[in-house]
């Protein structure tokens, strides 16, 4: 067995892996929609799923008919504001928010000195 045949560590993306944070993305994007004057709809919310940050922002701005009102610099500032809102929201996560089975899996990794 070579050294490459043994798992030595794991890397996790928190979103949807360790905790369900989709609601926080929705809240943060909705704040941005409110700020730019776009009416929040279920269709808009659904349309944002799987889209990157700048693409999501473009959809929000376009849905409100505000395409000409925001240059690239303003869009980047709005995207950063969304991320700030999101980070504030995820700071409220507790161990109770860990998805089922993940704590046991993490504990098992720790017991096996896999980090």
From TrEMBL:
Gene3D superfamilies named in the record: Putative phosphatase, domain 2
Pfam name, any one: Hydrolase
Q: What is this protein called?
A: Beta-phosphoglucomutase
